Amino acid sequence: MNKFKILSLCAAVCVLCGEGKASAQDKTTINVDASQVGAPIQSTMYGVFFEDINFGADGGLYAELIKNRSFEFKNHLVGWLPFGDVEIRKDKPAFDQNPHYARLTFKTRNLTSSGLENEGFRGIGFKQGEKYKFSMYARNQEKEPVKVKIELISSDNVVASAELVVESNKWTKLSADLVPRRTDKKGKIRITMAGRGVIDLDHISLFPENTWKGREGGLRADLVQALYDLNPGLFRFPGGCIVEGTTLDTRYEWKKSVGPVENRPTNINRWNYTFNQIRAYDYFQSLGLGFYEYFLLSEDLGAEPLPVLSCGLACQYENSNDPHDKEYCPVEHLQPFIDDALDLIEFANGAVTTKWGKLRAEMGHPEPFNMKYIGIGNEQWGELYPERLEKFIVAIKAKYPDMQIVGSSGPSAAGERFDYGWEQMNRLNVDLVDEHYYEPPTFFYNGATRYDNYDRNGPKVFAGEYAAHHSSKTNNFDTALSEAAFMTGLERNADVVYMATYAPLFAHLDAWQWRPDLIWFDNFEVVLTPNYYVQQLYGQNPGTNVVPLTVDGSPLTGQNNLYGSAVIDKNTNELIIKVVNSSNQDRNTTIKLDSSVKGENAQVTTLRAADLSMENSLENPKNVVPVNSTAKISNGELNFNVRSQSFSVIKIKM
């Protein structure tokens, strides 16, 4: 496949108010009544969903710079270039869950030395003058100490180095700081024996000192900052399809992702092999970014954690329709899966005197994470799913009656599987139903009315995975604008929709499997898509309650190519109006406000592109960005031209 390329076009930046021409027949009068306070907006309404796809964890959010640090990939030397005498062994390992290690021997005169080079994740990025923390576990097989040279390499030049001495015949952690004299986005690291002997190395690691909140072995600061700036109310993890696994053995098991990172067993990532046209044979999960780190990140973001666990079914797309398929755990043997769910709740919320609460405290967080939601299964369908889900519901509600359980309506936005899924979720009385849809922009424009006729008394909706897919599969402005229109319907139906998360979240520009994606990055830079700014404008302006926004007595759901919704924020005493114009013409618009709105000025933020194909790119990251302006309110009316192909957020002090 060709590498991903984002179109680089010139931005046409225009403020919403007082610019452009609109014909008289395009005149639209919008009525907003802020005195009619409606359904509350849930704090979880706008969130983020993380899945380890597109190198989103290792090579992305997790700041480890060395690939295959414990030699546990199926081919144990993937990512490594050995030289001299190097072999992979597993006798008397340092870590029982990661038993492989490298033995380096340098004894004969015909060898210059022995060592290893690591290529990182499409290169190792390091910046001049910044500190990088190197560590490894080492063991000396002979009596004399052995010096080991650690070097950062840029274009075959050494730009930072340190020496470590391996003395003990027992596994010992050694560390050093490296400060490069040059910046390189695609460097490498070299480990060389500087003296003769035999040594063993394992869990070789390199982290930037500059991680999120400065945590050692932590997360990449700029990527977490991008999440923080979305102001998410919900954080769903760890997937998606990786929760299911292609086989039950390769599913994500949360218990393997907690405890010391050195002893978390490596797991193959199902996106390693899923797409024939974009294979990633070096895509594995170190689980260094595990459930403890996910909960901690949720806390940092101020978002409610929503972990999703296996229901005992491996991916139904990848396996047979036979209910007795070996990759489907029989209902009568589900107890270990159910115990995993109960134990996870204890890990998140239990007292430090409990088994799993004690582990959480030992990892550094004695206070509970106050988890309120748990998802069971991902995109499962048919009779296999509800008969298993029911067993989880009974067990969880018996022990934790207040825990909110999220079920699934399957992989489709409509159709037989979807209808059956909803029928069963109603029967089981789950708290929320996870709906997924990856559809063209037209689906999202039409979807502004999707939830208008949903049952107000049934389970609530979690729009858990959605994204507009243009035929080009790019993050162009057409997709972003259609999502903005769609989200007016989520907001207007806040009594039905409690959660919504775009998917997927991250993608490495040099190592992706799926697109479009919300945030693109390479080893240094971050590209925020137009879709990101739509999510941000909703996330930063959620409000607390819905209020009516109408045209001729009806919700604004596409009349004259306009879409709209309105909320009040009781905390800031503001009225917040969101308006989308999907046409290629300006719309002459008057917003009539009720007497409860006293403000004389409106703060307006507009996201607009003159060309729907416009994107943000590494070369031009600001092609499509929000622009701020102000507008005057006169006699309870706000008059302006809603610019063509635009999404605007209007804030007025009450």
Radius of gyration, whole Å: 27 Å
* Biggest sheet overview: 8 strands, parallel, barrel
On the 0 to 100 scale, the average pLDDT is: 94
Give a count of the beta strands, DSSP E runs of length 2 or more.
35
Provide the β-strand percentage band.
25-35%
State the helicity in percent bands. 10-25%
**Structural category:** alpha/beta
Task: Provide a compact summary of the structure.
The protein is an alpha/beta fold.
Q: What does this 3D model show about the protein?
A:
The structure is a single chain. With about 650 residues, this protein is an alpha/beta fold. It contains 10 helices and 35 strands. It has an 8-stranded parallel barrel, surrounded by 6 helices. Strands 3, 6, 7, 9, 10 and 12 form a 6-stranded antiparallel β-sheet that branches. It has a 6-stranded antiparallel β-sheet with strand order 26-29-30-35-32-33, with helices on one face. α4 packs across α5 and α6 runs parallel beside α7.
